[in-house]
Specification:
heterodimer; A: mainly alpha; B: alpha/beta; Rossmann fold; Alpha-Beta Plaits; 6-stranded mixed β-sheet; 4-stranded antiparallel β-sheet; 38% helix; elongated
Chain lengths: 250, 311
C-alpha cells in the first residue's frame, strides 16, 4: 500500500512540478468557462425543463474536454518513462506490474477529477442565483459527477493503454485520441437506428456514450451505463497490464 | 548467488545471447567484459527481471528470475545503462521515493539515505535537483540508489561511462569497498577498469561466453612477450627467429637501422637471456630488451579477434 501511495504521489507530482499541469488546468478552465457562458445564456431566455447539468452537457465543450484532455493527461504516463529510461529502474524495483498500471491510472484519474472542480463551483453559483432545486439539485450534481468520473475512467484507461504501447508521447496522444473519438462517434449510429430492435441498432444504442452520459446529467443512475463504463475501463486496464507484461514474454 | 544456465535470448531473428552458462559466488566482484553489442546489457536486464529469456534458467539466491521476479527484485540493487534518473526531483526526494518502492520503513529509509549519500559523496548536492547535476554526480546518485536497500547483489551497467579520471577513481574505490559484503556485477568495455576492480571476469562476445574465471589465471594463460630493439639486417633477424622457432615474432618498426620487434615466448618462458646471448654471439647491437606482462587487454584482443578470424 505504501508503495502504491508513493507511486501515485509521484504521478501527481509530475503534473504540478513543471508547467504542464497548470497549462492543462487553464485550458480546461477556459473551456468550462465557455460552456458556463452558454449555460447562462440558456437560463436567461425562456423557462427550461432541463437541469442545468444537462444544458452544460449538451454544449460541445463537455466532449471537447473529454476527447482532447484525457489523451494529453495520459500520454506521458508510460511513454515518457520509456523514453527517458526510468521505466527500467521502476520495473526492476520490487513493485508489481499491476501496482504500476493502477498507480498511473489512479494518478491520471485524480488529476482529471481536479480538472472538473471548476464546474462544481459554476454549479454552485447557478444554484445560488436560481434557488430552485428542480433546476439543479444535489442529486443531479452527484449523478453528473459520477458520470464524469465513470466516463473519465474509461478515457484515462484508454490513454494509459495507448501510452503503454509506445515510447513516443505524441504517438500515445494521437492513438488514444483516435480510440477515444472512434468510440464516441460510433455511438452516433444509434441516431440512425431509431426504434429498431435488431442487433446492430441495439449495439449502437448500448455503446453510445452520449446516451449513457445524458441519463447521468438528468439525475438518473443507470446501472447498465455503470456496468458499461466499468467493464470497458477494466478491459483497457487489463490490456495495459498485458502490454507492460509483454516485455517479459518469451 | 547467481546461477545462469544455458541462457539464450533472441530478438526476432537476431541472437543476442547464445547459451551462456556461468555462476557467481557470494561476495565476489565480477566484471562483465565484451565489445559493444556483446550481450552484456541484455544479460543484466534478464538477471534483474526486466526482460525474459528465450530459454535457459537463471537463479539468484535460489529464486528463479522468471518465476519469482519480486523476490529477486528485493535482493538486487541495479543501475541501468546510461543511469536514467528523473530530472525533476531533488536528490534526497528521489532517494526517498526509491526507498519507498524498495519497501524500506520510514526510519530505515532516513537512516539508509544518510548513509548512502555519505558513502557515495553526494551530501553536498543532496538538496539539488537531479537535472542540475553533472554527469559524475548523477552517476553517484544512481549508485546510491542501487545501494539503498543494502541488497545482496549489486548490478551496475557501465558505472564509469562518461566520467572523468578522478570520478572513475572514486567510483572504483567505492566498488572495492563493496566487495566482501555484497556480490557485485559490473559491466564495462574499459579493460583497465575491470582489471583494477574485479576478482573475476566473464568475457562475452557476440552473445557467446568466451572466457570466465579468475583474472590472474585467465591472464596467465596468454603468453608473455618480449620487446627488443636490435641493430641488425632485417632478414638476419627474421631467419634467426624462425630458426629458434619463436612463434609470433612481429616487426613493430624500423628506425635508424634499429629494428623493433616483439617476440612471444614459448610456454611462458622468459626468453630475455636467450635473446641477449644470441645478439651478443652475432655481434649485433641491442638497445632495448623488455618483458611485457600480458594484460587483460591482450587477453581480450586475442579472444575477440580470434573469434573474428575463425569466421
Amino acid at each position: 500500500m505504501n508503495v502504491f501511495r508513493a507511486l501515485i504521489r509521484r504521478e501527481l507530482f509530475m503534473f504540478f512540478q513543471g508547467p504542464t499541469g497548470f497549462i492543462i488546468i487553464s485550458a480546461v478552465l477556459f473551456l468550462i468557462g465557455l460552456g458556463f457562458l452558454v449555460v447562462l445564456y440558456g437560463l436567461n431566455g425562456e423557462a427550461t425543463p432541463m437541469p442545468v447539468t444537462q444544458i452544460f452537457y449538451e454544449t460541445y465543450f463537455f466532449w471537447l474536454i473529454l476527447l482532447l484532455i484525457a489523451p494529453v493527461i495520459t500520454m506521458r504516463s508510460f511513454a515518457m518513462e520509456r523514453a527517458s529510461g526510468t521505466y527500467e529502474s521502476l520495473m526492476t524495483s520490487p513493485v508489481g506490474d499491476w501496482q504500476v498500471v493502477l498507480s498511473k491510472f489512479t494518478g491520471a484519474l485524480i488529476f482529471y477529477m481536479i480538472l472538473w472542480t471548476p464546474l462544481l463551483l459554476c454549479s454552485i453559483v447557478v444554484r445560488f442565483y436560481v434557488g430552485e432545486s428542480a433546476v439543479l439539485g444535489v442529486g443531479t450534481i452527484c449523478t453528473t459527477s459520477m458520470g464524469i468520473l465513470l466516463i473519465g475512467s474509461l478515457y484515462v484507461s484508454i490513454g494509459c493503454f495507448a501510452s503503454a504501447l509506445t515510447q513516443n508521447q505524441a504517438v500515445a496522444a494521437v492513438s488514444s485520441f483516435a480510440i477515444g473519438s472512434a468510440l464516441f462517434f460510433a455511438g452516433f449510429f444509434s441516431y440512425f437506428s431509431g426504434d429498431r430492435t435488431d442487433f446492430s441498432s441495439l449495439l449502437a444504442r448500448h455503446i453510445s456514450l452520449a446516451n449513457h452520459m445524458e441519463s447521468f446529467t438528468r439525475g438518473i443512475l443507470d446501472l447498465g451505463a455503470i456496468v458499461f463504463f466499468l467493464s470497458l475501463t477494466i478491459m483497457f486496464l487489463y490490456l495495459t497490464h498485458k502490454s507492460v507484461e509483454s516485455r517479459r514474454w518469451k | 548467488m547467481i546461477e545462469v544456465e544455458n541462457l539464450t535470448k533472441h530478438y526476432g531473428q537476431h541472437v543476442a545471447l547464445d547459451g551462456i552458462t556461468f555462476s557467481v559466488e557470494h561476495g565476489e566482484v565480477v566484471g562483465f567484459l565484451g565489445p559493444n553489442g556483446a550481450g552484456k546489457s541484455t544479460t543484466m536486464r534478464i538477471l534483474t527481471t526486466f526482460l525474459a529469456a528465450t530459454s535457459g534458467s537463471v537463479y539468484i539466491g535460489g529464486d528463479c528470475v522468471f518465476e519469482q521476479p519480486n523476490r529477486v527484485r528485493r535482493r538486487i540493487g541495479y543501475m541501468p545503462e546510461n543511469n536514467p534518473l528523473p530530472i525533476d526531483l531533488r536528490v534526497r526526494d528521489y532517494l526517498d521515493f526509491r526507498a519507498q518502492l524498495k519497501h524500506l520503513s520510514k526510519d530505515m529509509a532516513t537512516k539508509r539515505i544518510d548513509e548512502v549519500v555519505d558513502e557515495c559523496g553526494i551530501s553536498d548536492v543532496a538538496n539539488r535537483y537531479i537535472g542540475q547535476l553533472s554527469r559524475g554526480y548523477r552517476q553517484r546518485v544512481g549508485m546510491a540508489d542501487a545501494l539503498l536497500a543494502n541488497p545482496e547483489l549489486i548490478i551496475l551497467d557501465e558505472p564509469t561511462s562518461g566520467l572523468d579520471p578522478n570520478q572513475i577513481r572514486s567510483v572504483r574505490s567505492l566498488i572495492r569497498k563493496l566487495s566482501g559484503k555484497h556480490t557485485v556485477l559490473i559491466s564495462s568495455h574499459i579493460l583497465s577498469e575491470i582489471e583494477m576492480t574485479c576478482d573475476r571476469v566473464i568475457i562475452l562476445h557476440e552473445g557467446k561466453l568466451l572466457a570466465s574465471g579468475e583474472m590472474k589465471q585467465l591472464i596467465s594463460k596468454s603468453n608473455l612477450a618480449v620487446v627488443a630493439e636490435i641493430c641488425a639486417p632485417l632478414n638476419d633477424i627474421k631467419n634467426w627467429a624462425s630458426e629458434i622457432a619463436l612463434e609470433n615474432s612481429e616487426l613493430i618498426e624500423q628506425k635508424n637501422g634499429y629494428v623493433r620487434c616483439r617476440f612471444s615466448a614459448i610456454k611462458n618462458n622468459d626468453i630475455r637471456e636467450q635473446i641477449f646471448t644470441i645478439v651478443n654471439e652475432r655481434g649485433w647491437e641491442l638497445r632495448e630488451l623488455s618483458l611485457q606482462t600480458p594484460s587483460l587487454e591482450d587477453l581480450f584482443v586475442s579472444l575477440t579477434n580470434g573469434e573474428e578470424g575463425n569466421r
